TrEMBL record:
PROSITE patterns for this protein: MFS
Membrane-crossing segments per the record: 81-104, 111-130, 136-157, 178-196, 208-227, 272-295, 307-326, 333-354, 360-380, 400-420, 426-444
InterPro entries reported for this sequence: Atg22-like, ATG22/LtaA_families, MFS_dom, MFS_trans_sf
Compartment list: Cell membrane
Membrane topology: Multi-pass membrane protein
Stated name of the protein: MFS transporter
Length: 464
C-alpha cells in the first residue's frame, strides 16, 4: 500500500505555482525567433536558392532544367524541397514526440528536460549558418533536427500550463504567452529586416546577411530560454505512483505509451475528436505560415526585404490579435472563438489565390488579416485542449497535440508540395489548403467540450 507521501498528486497547487507563470511566458518569446525568422521567413526561400544552385546552376526556374535533386533515388523539384523537408520533419516528430511525452510525464523536474531540448534545437538552428553553396542536404538535415527538438521542448512547455494555471485562467495565460512570443519574434525580425535590406551598407552579400539573421534567431532562442528554465527550475511535475516510478523512465514510458491510444479511444473520445479536428485545421494554419514567404517570393515575385517587412507586420498585428481573441474568448468561450477564426482563415486562403503578381498592397491586407486570427486561433486551441487532458498525463497527451503543432504540419505541406510538383504553380497549391479549414471546422463543431472535460476528470471552467 502507498504511503501518504507516495500517493499521486491529483490537483496542482495553482496558488503556489502562480509564481511560475511569468517565467513560463518567456519561452514563447525565446522560441518564436526561430519560428519567425527561420521557419517562416528565411529558410524556405534560402534553401530553395541553395537547391536550385545544386540542380540548375545559373538558372532561376525549375522549368528551365531537368529535375535532378535526388533523395534515396526519389527525384525532388528544387521548389518542393522546403515543404518536403517540413513534411519529413513532421513525420519523424510524430514518432519521436510521443515517446518524449511519455518520458517527460515521469520526470520530476520538467524545466530541466525543457532546457536540454531547447538548447539542442538552438544548436541545430545555429548550424544553418554553415549552409552555403550547394549544401542543401546539410540545410535539410539541420532543419529537421531543429524542428524535432523544438517540438520536444514544446511538449514539456505546453504541459506545464496545466500545472501553473487554473482552468478559468488558461485562455488568458495561453493568449498572453503567444502574444509575448509574437512581440519577441517581431523585434528580432525588425533587426534582421535592417540587416537584409541594407546588407550592402554593412559590406555583406545577401546570402551572408540571411545566414547571420538565422544565426541570430538561433542565439536568441538559446539565450532567452535561460529565463524560463531558471525561473521554473524547481517546479515539480505531477507525481507518479511508486509502482510506475520503479519501472524506470524508458521501460515505464514504453508501457505507458502502449496504453495511451487505447485509453484515448475508450475513455476520451471527445479529446480524440478534438485532436482530429486540430490535425486538419492546424495543418492548414501551419502550411499557410510556412509557405507564405515561398509563395510571395516565387509566385508573386516580391523581394526578400518586402517579405520580411510583411511578416514583421504580421508579428506585431498578431501580438494584438492574441490579446484580442483572449478577451473575446472570455465572453464567448474558446470553442466558439476558434470556430469563428477558421471561417476567417478560409476567406484568407481563397483571397490569396487572386492576389496579382507584385501587388504588394493586397498582400499586406492579407497579412493584417492573418495577424489578427493567427495568435488567437493558436493560443486558444492550446488552452482549449488543456481542458481535455487527463491529470498526470499532460506531457504524454500534449505530445500528441505537439506533433500537429506549429512548424510540424505534414498533410498540408505534403499537399502543397505535390500540387506544386504537378502544376508548377503555387496558386493552386495555396488554394488547395481550403480543405483543411473546412474539415477541421466541421470536426471541431462536433466536439462536446464539456463532456470531454468530464471524461478527463477535470474541473469545469465557467466558459468554454
Amino acid at each position: 500500500m502507498e504511503s501518504v507521501a507516495d500517493a499521486p498528486i491529483t490537483t496542482p497547487d495553482y496558488a503556489a505555482n502562480a509564481k511560475y507563470i511569468r517565467p513560463w511566458f518567456w519561452y514563447d518569446w525565446a522560441n518564436s525567433a526561430f519560428v519567425t525568422t527561420i521557419g517562416t521567413v528565411l529558410y524556405g526561400p534560402y534553401i530553395t536558392s541553395i537547391a536550385k544552385a545544386a540542380a540548375c546552376p545559373g538558372q532561376d526556374s525549375d522549368l528551365d532544367c531537368a529535375v535532378n535533386l535526388h533523395v534515396l533515388g526519389i527525384p525532388i523539384a528544387p521548389g518542393s524541397l522546403a515543404p518536403y523537408t517540413t513534411t519529413f520533419a513532421t513525420l519523424l516528430s510524430a514518432v519521436v514526440l510521443i515517446f518524449v511525452g511519455a518520458i517527460a510525464d515521469r520526470m520530476d523536474r520538467p524545466a530541466r528536460f525543457l532546457g536540454a531540448c531547447a538548447w539542442l534545437g538552438a544548436l541545430s538552428a545555429a548550424g544553418l549558418f554553415f549552409v552555403t553553396g550547394t549544401r542543401w542536404q546539410l540545410g535539410a538535415i539541420l532543419m529537421v533536427l531543429a524542428t524535432v527538438f523544438l517540438g520536444s521542448s514544446l511538449v514539456v512547455y505546453d504541459s506545464i500550463l496545466n500545472q501553473i494555471a487554473a482552468p478559468d485562467d488558461r485562455d488568458r495565460v495561453s493568449s498572453r504567452g503567444w502574444a509575448l512570443g509574437y512581440l519577441g519574434g517581431g523585434l528580432l525580425l525588425a533587426v534582421n529586416l535592417v540587416l537584409v535590406t541594407m546588407h550592402d551598407t554593412f559590406g555583406l552579400s545577401t546570402g551572408m546577411a540571411v545566414r547571420i539573421s538565422m544565426l541570430s534567431a538561433a542565439s536568441w532562442w538559446g539565450l532567452f530560454a535561460i529565463i524560463p528554465i531558471k525561473g521554473m527550475w524547481d517546479l515539480r511535475g505531477v507525481e507518479t505512483p511508486v509502482a510506475a516510478r520503479n519501472e524506470g523512465a524508458v521501460a515505464g514510458s514504453l508501457k505507458q505509451l502502449s496504453s495511451t491510444f487505447r485509453d484515448l479511444r475508450a475513455h476520451h473520445p471527445q479529446t480524440m475528436l478534438f485532436l482530429l479536428a486540430y490535425l486538419f485545421y492546424n495543418d492548414g494554419i501551419q502550411t499557410v505560415i510556412s509557405a507564405s514567404s515561398l509563395y510571395g517570393a516565387e509566385e508573386l515575385k516580391f523581394e526578400q526585404s518586402q517579405l520580411i517587412a510583411l511578416i514583421l507586420l504580421v508579428q506585431f498585428v498578431a501580438f494584438g490579435g492574441a490579446l484580442l481573441f483572449g478577451r473575446i474568448a472570455a465572453k464567448l468561450g474558446a470553442w466558439r472563438t476558434v470556430l469563428g477564426s477558421l471561417g476567417i482563415w478560409t476567406i484568407i486562403v481563397v483571397a490569396a489565390y487572386f492576389v496579382p503578381e507584385k501587388a504588394f498592397i493586397p498582400f499586406i491586407l492579407l497579412g493584417v488579416a492573418i495577424g489578427i486570427v493567427l495568435g488567437g486561433s493558436q493560443a486558444l486551441s492550446r488552452s482549449l485542449y488543456s481542458q481535455l487532458v487527463p491529470n498526470g498525463r499532460e506531457a504524454e497527451y500534449f505530445s500528441l497535440y505537439q506533433a500537429m503543432e506549429r512548424g510540424t504540419s505534414w498533410f498540408g505541406t505534403l499537399l502543397f508540395g505535390l500540387v506544386y510538383q504537378l502544376t508548377h504553380t503555387y496558386r493552386l497549391a495555396i488554394v488547395a489548403l481550403i480543405i483543411f479549414f473546412v474539415l477541421g471546422g466541421f470536426l471541431l463543431s462536433r466536439v462536446d467540450i464539456r463532456e470531454g472535460i468530464r471524461q478527463a476528470g477535470n474541473e469545469q471552467p465557467a466558459i468554454v
